[in-house]
Amino acid sequence: MKILVLNSGSSSLKYQLIDVDNGEVVGKGLAERIGVQGAEGASLTFQANGKKAQTIPADMPDHDEAMRLVFHALTDPDSGAIRDICEISAVGHRVVHGGERFVQPTLVTEETLREIDAVSDLAPLHNPPNLAGIKACRRAMPDVPQVAVFDTAFFAPIPKRAYIYALPYDLYEEYGVRRYGFHGTSHRYVTARARKLLSDAGMDVTNTRIVSCHLGNGCSASAVVGDKPIDTSLGMTPAEGLVMGTRGGDIDPAIIPFLMRRTGMTPDDIDDLINKKSGLLGVSGVSSDMRDIEARAAAGDSRAALAFEIFCYRVRKYIGAYAAAMGGLDAIVFTGGIGENGDTVRAGICKDLEFLGVEIDSTKNTGFRGEGDISVEGGRVRIMVIPTDEEMMIARETSSVVSELLAPTAH
């Protein structure tokens, strides 16, 4: 079964065509600068069946035109992945926020679209473009089943004590003010993969206690017992928790009215400050990219060094908190661009966690890329690096929904 996985942004459309029977990515690409009038650099990059990636200029006034170009690239006789669009069995769409309504992958219907739109105020920068991509794809493929897979759905099982903020309860009941969590598809994939590797190594993974660290430009940590999350660092929005590229994570909330009174900042100014000017960028003053931070720190830049130290400290603190919440710790998983490639960051995070049984093998860790265990031989807590694959997870979940839909009804 071939599943087309789509991730639609406000001006971009990322896709992968995945054969879920063998796990092969047969085609992938990215449409950029959709709907940006007069913009240079609008293009479609595509690759199929292991061939060299190609990029072509493409004027895309909307997501409908982007989808048309994607389908043309997929079926191109010379460089395409398939002969005809009818080879696509289903489409899986990444949707950032499902609120409390969507706690599992859901077949897209008109009612589904209305309900996704109804919770879009919880993710105003993400859900509307997600919807635009779904609608464009449905117009292009009206007879192909389509499934929405929600970033927030993985965290539906977390207990109320973990997701309710200590604010007047009416705010939760009337406006949905609560912790939802994000990066759920990534956390689901890497923790499932970690349990598989641990099981293959002889561990009983029924109630394995894992802290999953998704570290990239956006960052989150999740506490997972068995296959169920019990807490996560991102909250009602993707601004809470760990230090990120441009987001500050946890702060004293009273800072916000203080700044508004002292500086005259508006709510929009505050939103911009929290989401676009803080984090690694805000502390270092030079970059939101960890590679730049490390290079500047190595060259003697004290603020870059401080940004690095704060980043590692915040992750380390969450690991300790989640170990307490789970009553112990069996494994730490690093994923995301920084988690997968940042050996210095991984070492900095694991520093001083020996009391929990966390001991990183510096020889294994240095330069490590790919999937594997970087803890010391016989270490009590396994430290694992697992590259995330959200598209594969979406494809599998879409396949599961569609297979159930097509299964014969028992009489």
Could you walk me through the main structural features you see in this protein, from its secondary elements to its overall organization?
The chain has two domains: 2-150, Nucleotidyltransferase, domain 5 (2-Layer Sandwich), CATH 3.30.420.40; 202-390, 2-Layer Sandwich (Nucleotidyltransferase, domain 5), CATH 3.30.420. It is built from 15 helices and 14 strands. It has helices at residues 63-74, 110-118, 127-140, 160-163, 169-175, 184-200, 255-263, 267-276, 279-284, 290-298, 302-326, 336-341, 343-350, 362-365, 390-406, and strands spanning 2-8, 12-19, 24-32, 43-48, 54-57, 88-95, 106-107, 146-150, 209-215, 219-225, 228-232, 331-335, 372-373, 382-385. The strands form two sheets. An eight-stranded mixed β-sheet has the order 5-4-3-2-1-6-8-7, sandwiched between helices. A six-stranded mixed β-sheet has the order 11-10-9-12-14-13, with helices on both faces. The relative contact order is 0.11. The mean pLDDT is 94.
